[in-house]
Write a structure and sequence with these properties.
Structural class of chain B: mainly beta
Strand content of chain A: over 45%
Radius of gyration of chain A: 14 Å
Structural class of chain A: mainly beta
Largest interface: A-B, 25 and 31 residues
Number of strands of chain B: 11
Oligomer: heterodimer
Helix content of chain A: under 10%
Number of strands of chain A: 11
Distance between the termini of chain A: 40 Å
Number of helices of chain A: 0
Order of helices and strands of chain B: EEEEEEEEEEE
Shape of chain B: globular
Distance between the termini of chain B: 36 Å
Chain lengths: 114, 115
């Protein structure tokens, strides 16, 4: 059984502050690590897909890093805004490059307080 | 805009009464997935179609079935819903190439209630 763990489960952050949260996953047979943002009443939307150890991706104020040897990824949000309030899901796929779907964590529920 | 559409947004059914959830896509993606998410839990993969090939997860109950009549549509059938099947059901697609790691495109989900 694959376990993808995300922490914290929920997070309240003041507008303008920066924040980060963690995703841990099995380090063996790693293929790709995905981050999705899921706003209430909307569709989950892909933020990043990362495959290489040491990979770092950035999209505006959001960035992510990947450590495949120790099995973790961090998501950073700089200067949080109310529109960043969402659940952030990470998901893991096994080696082989097949279309077998992703194993998701429970998510980090982020609330930005004005 | 090209997208993944799920209908209905909310579905209420009675205990034991068959129910069908639908998903359509205009992306022409070759893979379609169904995920189930119960409250405070991780989305769990039920099954997926790679083109016409159906791939069931080992722990998906027999009560759950799926159909993909063409590239654009995929249905989730729950033959005899129980109270434990109340959940958010998410449909997702991807354009898979061998050895690739493409992102998923999701619908907005169907929230199923069982009375």
């Amino acid at each position: 059984i694959l376990n993808v763990e995300q922490s914290p489960q929920s997070l309240h952050v003041q507008e303008g502050d920066s924040t980060n949260f963690t995703c841990s996953f099995p380090s063996s047979n790693f293929y790709a690590l995905h981050w999705y943002r899921w706003e209430t009443a909307k569709s989950p939307e892909a933020l990043f897909v990362m495959t290489l150890n040491g990979d770092e991706k950035k999209k505006g104020r959001i960035s992510a890093t990947l450590n495949t040897k120790e099995g973790y990824s961090y998501l950073y949000i700089k200067g949080s805004q109310p529109e960043d309030s969402a659940t952030y899901l990470c998901a893991f796929s096994l080696g082989g490059g097949g279309a077998d779907g992703l194993t998701f964590g429970k998510g980090t529920h982020l609330i930005i307080q004005p | 805009d090209a997208m993944v559409i799920q209908n209905p947004r909310y579905q209420v059914t009675q205990f034991g009464k068959p129910v069908t959830l639908s998903c359509s896509q205009t992306l022409n993606h070759n893979v379609m997935y169904w995920y189930q998410q119960k409250s405070s839990q991780a989305p769990k993969l039920l099954f997926h179609y790679y083109d016409k090939d159906f791939n069931n997860e080992a722990d998906t109950p027999d009560n759950f079935q799926s159909r993909r009549p063409n590239t654009s549509f995929c249905f989730l059938d729950i033959r005899s819903p129980g109270l434990g099947d109340a959940a958010m059901y998410l449909c997702a697609t991807s354009l898979h190439r061998q050895g690739g790691f493409e992102k998923l495109f999701f619908g907005s989900g169907t929230q199923l209630s069982v009375l």
